[in-house]
Amino acid sequence: MVGKKGGSKGMGAAEDAEEELARTPLQAIILADSFTTKFRPITLERPKVLLPLVNAPMIDYTLAWLESAGVEEVFVFCCAHSKQVIDYLDKSNWFGQPNFSVTTIESHNAISAGDALRLIYEQHVEDFPDMFRIAQDPNSIIAANREGINWDIRFRRNMHDWEVNDLVDLFARLQHCHINLQAADKLKWGHQKGVYTVKEGYQQLCSRNPVIANWPWKLIWRTKLPPKIRGDFILVSGDTVSNMSLSQALKEHKERRRKDSNAVMTMVIKQSKASPVTRQSRLGTEELFMVIDPETKQLLYYEDRGDNLKGYLSLDKALLTDNTSISLQNDKQDCYIDICSPEVLSLFTDNFDYQHLRHDFVKGLLVDDIMGYKIYTHEIHSSYAARIDNYRSYHTISKDIIQRWTYPLVPDVQFFGNSATKLERQGMYRAPEIKQSRSSKIGPFTVIGSGTSIGNNTEISNSVVGEGCSIGSNVTIEGCYIWHNVTIEDGCKLKHSIVCDGVTMKSGAALEPGVVLSFKVVIGRSFLVPAYSKVSLHQQPIRQDSDEELEYADNSSGITESPSVSGTLDLLNEEERTELPDSQEYGVGDGGVGFIWLVSEAGQEEEWRHSVAPIPVDKLVAIMQISNDEADLPNEDGAFLPPSGELGPDSITNDSNEDAEDIRDDSVIFEREVEATFQRAVEEDVTDDHVILEVNSLRLTVNEFPGLMLFVILWLDPKFLSAIENCLCLPSLFYCRLSYNMASADCAGALFYSVMKLALDAPHDSPNELYKNVVSTVRKWKKLLKYYLPSIDEEIEVILKFEEMCLESAREYSPLFVQILHHLYDQDIIQEEAILDWASEKEGAEESDKIFVKQSEKFIQWLKEASEEEDED
Amino acid sequence: MPDIERLVNDFVAKLSKRKVEGSQATSRLTAELLRSVVSLQRLPPTNSAAVLIEAVRGIGVKLAAANPVELAVGNIVRRVLHIIREEDLSLLTSKTSDLDLSAASDDEGTIDQDYDPTQSAAAAAAAAKSFLRPPSLHALLENMSDKAVPSNNYTSSSGGDSEEKSKADKLARTRKLKHDVIEAINILIEDIDTCHELIAEQAVEHIHQNEVILTLGSSRTAFEFLCAAKEKKRSFRVVVAEGAPRYQGHALAKELVSRGLQTIVVTDSAVFAMISRVNMVIVGVHAVMANGGVIAPVGMNMVALAAQKHAVPFVVVAGIHKLCPSYPHNPEVCLNDMRSPAELLEFGRFSNCMEFGMDSGAPLQVVNPGFDYVAPELVSLLITDILDNTVLHLEGITRHICIVSYQTTTQLMILICKGGYINEESILKLLTEFKQYMLISGIFWRAVVD
Question: What range(s) does the W2 domain occupy (chain A) (predicted)?
Answer without folding.
Answer: 660-873
